[in-house]
Amino acid sequence: MDSGDLGSSIARLACDAGYAVVLSNSRHPDTLADLASDLGENATAATPAGAARTSDVVVLSVPLFAINDLPVGDLAGKVVIDTTNYYPERDGQIEALDNMSPDGSGTDGRRRVGPGGQDCDGALLRARPL
Predict the structure, then answer these.
(1) For the chain, which residues make up each domain, given as ranges?
(2) Which residues contact 41 (CB under 8 A, 6 or more apart)?
(3) CATH 3.40.50.720 matches 5-127
(4) What is the pLDDT tens value at each position of the chain, 130 positions in all?
């Protein structure tokens, strides 16, 4: 979920490996038409809820401020790889998070999306793609 730099990079790798990919963002699926076309026949676009419902594995790569808008019910029972990290310059300064987590993510992915959620450092993925 989300199709920024990290999300679209992971989507490209998955499409190139032959996986079906459903892209989503906080706007409308139509805003992803160019990216889906660029990724090829394995890529489609949907709403976040639609992407969550139709996927077995969800890569969550959203700004921290968008966490409360996630379709948590639709993520139940899914494998969720959470690359969400707290970036004060993007998300605004959040004192509770500044003092809470040495990795900067501020919260554990399992609390956001349920027991299938796993935190993953987005910087690690950018440095060494899977």
Answers:
(1) 5-127
(2) none
(3) yes
(4) 556 788 889 999 999 999 999 999 888 999 999 999 999 999 999 999 999 999 999 888 888 878 888 888 998 888 888 887 778 888 888 877 777 655 444 444 444 455 554 445 544 444 434 4
Give yes or no for a contact between 42 and 19, defined as CB atoms under 8 angstroms apart.
yes
Instruction: Take residue 38 and report the two structure tokens written for it.
Output: 């660029």
The identity of residue 78, as a single letter, is K
Report field, pTM of the whole predicted structure over 0.85: no
What secondary structure, in 3-state letters, does the chain show? Answer: CCCCHHHHHHHHHHHHCCCCEEECCCCCHHHHHHHHHHHCCCEEECCHHHHHHHCCEEEECCCHHHHHHCCHHHHCCCEEEECCCCCHHHHCCCHHHHCCCCCCCCCCHHHHHCCCEEECCHHHHHHCCC
